[in-house]
Amino acid sequence: MSDPTPPRPIDLLGLVPDALVVELERHFGARGQKAFRARQVARWVYETDVRGFDEMTDLPTAEREALAATYVLGEPDADTVEVSDDGTAKHLWRLHDGELVESVLIPTEDRLTLCLSSQAGCAMGCTFCATGWSGFRRHLTAGEIVAQYRASRRWAAEHDYGPITNIVYMGMGEPLANRGAVHPSLTILNRGFGVGARRITVSTVGVVPGILELAKRPEQFKLAISLHSPVEALRRELIPLEKRWPLPELVEALKAFETAGGRRITFEYTMIRDVNDAPELAPLLADLAFDLHAFVNLIPFNPIPWQAWGPSTSERIRHFQSVLAQRGVDVAVREPRGRDIDAACGQLRANALVQIQE
Ligand code: SAH
Ligand code: SF4
């Protein structure tokens, strides 16, 4: 009989901060080391971007070696990095099993937003999304989600991009379909790395139980809803998940989210020419957004090569914008970022950048 595959070493990036300290105190305790060593390592993990235990210079060499024998500091390999004319930087990360995911750094005047992936591929099959067409590969672990942040933080520091101020879960995958990893990743980014909860946005296509779960969290994480249509029948054509959790149920969940935390939600509305940009849809969208006090981002559709759909005309987009504004809804039109590096892999979702309303 062949040997079973050895267990993968524990990824320190995938542990929530309290668990990381407990785990390391146990580790150091068993080696006759003082408990403060655990906090020393935690500082290296969260406050620095060292690549490995050998760089943790305030630990004795034997302790660095012992850590390396038991743990990993999960780090994806950067397969490629593409930098757009507008400064948007897309990383394609190769995970330990060869899966590829992307994350995007989006610099604007006053912030640096990281858009990260929660799954390799996506099972939701939205008809306008390249990730949806490519199908589901696997969930990412909490450590693999957090590693995109840590590696991007290092890259940003090395390339004079400054600190990452905001995080959006808008890369590949549906975060609320991978809640087992996404919840701890939120805790790690917030409590470990110190990214304010109000600066972290989870984007979902409408996984109702996931929205309700997020509503229960005490932290003020933000929520963006990929709406794309204010009417059920059309939404069903764009988003298969609409059949499972139709709009009325989604709206109820959003009300619960708002009531629970007093947090404003954002609607993302990707405008596809002659698909979801009919003028008569604008007042319906406005009513929905008004009732929920939602902020609306209108995003020109980013064409995918094998599909005939194109972005709405700027007249149509402006029309939507003015109808929403006239009806008292806060609305912004988002220009796609990094178009010139929108390569074949996945879909550059930098266009979905949400300027979170503080
Ligand atoms: N699965 C989550 C988060 C990842 S998708 C979600 O759907 O919300 C991030 C955003 O990119 C979503 O708002 C999605 O609707 C949008 N998007 C996907 N394909 C797009 C395209 N071709 N053009 C413009 N936006 C797109
Ligand atoms: Fe998945 Fe979001 Fe793309 Fe839909 S839009 S297929 S949920 S990544």
Rg result = 21 Å
Full CATH superfamily name of the largest domain = Aldolase class I
CATH class of the largest domain: Alpha Beta
Strand content: 15-25%
What structural class do helix, strand and pairing data support? alpha/beta
Biggest sheet strand line-up = 3-4-5-6-9-10-11-12-13-14
Report the major sheet.
Answer: 10 strands, mixed
CATH topology of the largest domain: TIM Barrel
Q: Number of folding domains?
A: 2
Helix content: 25-40%
Unreliable stretches (pLDDT < 50, length at least 5) are 348-358
Number of strands: 14
Small molecules bound: S-adenosyl-L-homocysteine, iron/sulfur cluster
Average pLDDT rating: 91
General description of the model:
- The protein contains eleven helices and 14 strands.
- It has 358 residues and is α/β, with parallel strands linked by helices.
- It has two domains: 10-72, DNA polymerase, domain 1 (Orthogonal Bundle), CATH 1.10.150; 77-357, TIM Barrel, CATH 3.20.20.
- The strands form three sheets. Strands 3-4-5-6-9-10-11-12-13-14 form a ten-stranded mixed sheet, covered by helices on one side. A two-stranded parallel sheet has the order 1-2.
- Strand 3 (77-83) and strand 4 (89-94) form a beta hairpin.
- Helix 1 packs across helix 2, helix 5 (142-158) crosses helix 6 and helix 10 packs across helix 11 (314-326).
- 44% of the residues are buried.
- The model is unreliable at 348-358 (pLDDT under 50).
- Iron/sulfur cluster (SF4) binds next to helix 4.
